[in-house]
Amino acid sequence: MTTTEAAVPSLSIGEVAERTGLSVHALRFYEREGLLVGPVQRTSGGRRRYTSFDVEWLLICVKLRESGMPLADLKHFAELVRHGPGNEAERLRLLDAHRQRVDAQIQALEECRSVIAWKVGVYAEHLARGEAGGLWDPTP
Amino acid sequence: MTTTEAAVPSLSIGEVAERTGLSVHALRFYEREGLLVGPVQRTSGGRRRYTSFDVEWLLICVKLRESGMPLADLKHFAELVRHGPGNEAERLRLLDAHRQRVDAQIQALEECRSVIAWKVGVYAEHLARGEAGGLWDPTP
DNA sequence: ATTTGATCTAGACCTCGCTCTAGATCGTAG
DNA sequence: CTACGATCTAGAGCGAGGTCTAGATCAAAT
User: Fold this and answer.
1) Is the predicted pLDDT of residue B132 greater than 80, yes or no?
2) In this model, does residue B137 exceed pLDDT 60?
3) pLDDT in tens, A89-127
4) Where do the HTH merR-type domain residues begin and end (chains A, B) (predicted)?
């Protein structure tokens, strides 16, 4: 013990859950599914200890998941990183493909947004006019 | 109440599937789940005939679903419309709440996008430099 | 020493949103 | 009339992504 603690903080699963927004269940699930780059360290008593690298990786996972990357792709990415250098081109392809999907998703959402906003406007106007106006039903 | 009888072509389920992008299975499923405003008309032989109103509504449903509205909310919206006028304020709330969620989603995606784009940049640069550079692993 | 709370494993279970199957019927083309 | 494809119903099945349970163990506080 003594001086080395500050360099490798080593968090418990609960602390990691707090920091990543994932539940402890999800953390264990991700590990089982092979979504982590390396095996999580354990204490003598068998409890998980996460390094800051683990947490960083998990934060990336969260971002990728948030943006709709399937767990399978995440797993693939983790495998690539796990096998070390030499496959950066593939990692790049994977990420870039995902970025493109995200772009498409943003575009689609913006289109939806404008359709919805227009509808909201229709209803708002209708209400403002004291609901006397003609609002035909299969909502215009 | 509509002006043109000829403008109500009455489509089969297959045709509606084509036009909406939903499968025939999904169309029957949506109907069972009460996601449609009215009951779909039937031929004497029991086959569904969709009006252009049905199709319009379904196209709205598709947009709302695409942007992540759960079927339960869609059902609620359909119920409001089904019960006719008088609840426009609630319809407005429902749609506007969804619009806000979509906005948040777009924002989140844009954040993800920039994180990913940055990472793509890191890998690309690394590769351009002939992968001699230092790429530490839990992907920087 | 005891209690309390966090964590452990393995595996069952859940929600969501469809998708598919089976077996019957309809309707049109030859 | 016969075939054949589209449609019908009821209900089972599926894949994704977790979530939850049971029963045990660990670690810290009283």
Assistant:
1) no
2) no
3) 999 999 999 999 999 999 999 999 999 999 898 888 888
4) 10-80
CB atoms within 10 A of CB A37: 21
Q: What is the DSSP letter of A39?
A: P
Among protein residues, the one whose C-alpha sits closest to the C1' atom of C10 is A32
Nearest partner of B13 among B1, B29, B2, judged by Cα? B29
Mind listing the pLDDT tens digit for each residue in B67-118?
999 999 999 999 999 998 889 999 999 999 999 999 999 999 999 999 999 9
Q: Which nucleotides along chain C are within 7 A of a protein C-beta?
A: 6-9, 11, 16-21, 25-27
Beta-ladder partners of B50? B11
Q: What value, to the nearest 5°, has the Cα angle with vertex B139 and ends B102 and A48?
A: 90
Q: What percent of chain A has pLDDT over 90?
A: 76
Chosen from A35, A36, A113, A129 to mutate, greatest number of chain B CBs within 10 A: A113
DSSP 8-state code for residue A36: S
CATH architecture of A1-84: Orthogonal Bundle (1.10)
Chain B environment of A106 (Cβ under 8 Å): 106, 109-110, 113
Q: Map out the domains of chain A as residue ranges.
A: 1-84, 87-130
State the maximum Cα–Cα separation within chain B, in Å, rounded to a whole number.
74
